[in-house]
Amino acid sequence: MEHPLSSILLAGIASCLVLDLWQQILKRTAGIPTANWAVVGRWYLRLWIVKSMYQPTIDAAPRQSNELRVGWLVHYGVSVGYAVVLYTLMVVVPVFKPTLIDGLIFGALSVAVPWFYFMPCMGKGVMASRTPTPVKACCIALANHLVYGVALVFALGLGM
Questions:
Q1: In the chain, how many domains are there?
Q2: CA–CA distance, 133 with 142 (Å, rounded to integer)
Q3: CA 64, CA 136: separation in Å to the nearest integer?
Q4: Which residue segment(s) compose the domain that 143 sits in?
Q5: Is residue 60 part of a domain?
Q6: How many angstroms separate the CA atoms of 9 and 64, rounded?
Q7: Among 37, 84, 140, 154, which is most exposed with the fewest C-beta within 10 angstroms?
Q8: pLDDT in tens, 87-111
Q9: Domain assignment present for 44
Q10: Taking a C-beta distance cutoff of 8 angstroms, is the pair 138, 128 a contact?
């Protein structure tokens, strides 16, 4: 058995890679754009400048040096954070098991973060209510998180 921290780190990275591959498949087959990690990086970098998580005009904010690189780091860092949460819910407080159903449940629960935190912080509104197509945006986020949840459950299950 690997050390739990290395299992968590590897599972977070591996499941994030699966999510990124999923987004590339959606882009190529359905024309759905991938997440814009540059804007995420800009949001994170500006967080330290404006001292606020709520940045409703982040899309129009001036570009920041290394924002794309920082966005990718935030993306993978958040994934490792999810891995810590899921590991805790699989090992410490055994609520989840490495099954398809539990992966789908965790993925469905995890979509609350973009719907109720990241989207509002970036001016998109709760559940993308301030976008031209809120239902579509929410469905894409849900599909992404379902794929991610399954990948993360199985990645942690293999590492334990």
A1: 1
A2: 14
A3: 29
A4: 4-34+73-159
A5: no
A6: 28
A7: 84
A8: 999 999 999 999 999 999 999 999 9
A9: no
A10: yes
pLDDT in tens, 33-80: 999 999 999 999 999 999 999 999 999 999 999 999 999 999 999 999
| Residue type, position 27, single letter | K
pLDDT at 1 over 50: no
Rounded to whole angstroms, how far apart are CA atoms 9 and 23?
21
Using alpha carbons, list the distances in angstroms from residue 50 to 28, 55, 74: 37, 9, 18
Q: Which two tokens stand for residue 111?
A: 């979509």
Look at residue 141 and tell me if it is in a domain: yes
The string of DSSP letters for 79-91 reads: HHHHHHHHHIIII
Task: Report the C-alpha gap between 103 and 98 in whole angstroms.
Answer: 7
Per the listing, tokens 């539990």 go with 102
Rg (CA), the chain: 16
Kindly give, in sequence order, each residue whose CB lies less than 8 Å from that of residue 112, ignoring residues fewer than 6 positions away.
none
In terms of C-beta density within 10 A (0-12 exposed, 13-18 middle, 19 or more buried), how is residue 115 classed?
Answer: buried
Domain contains 135: yes
DSSP code, position 130: T
pLDDT digits (tens, 9 = 90+) for 105-127: 999 999 999 999 999 999 999 99
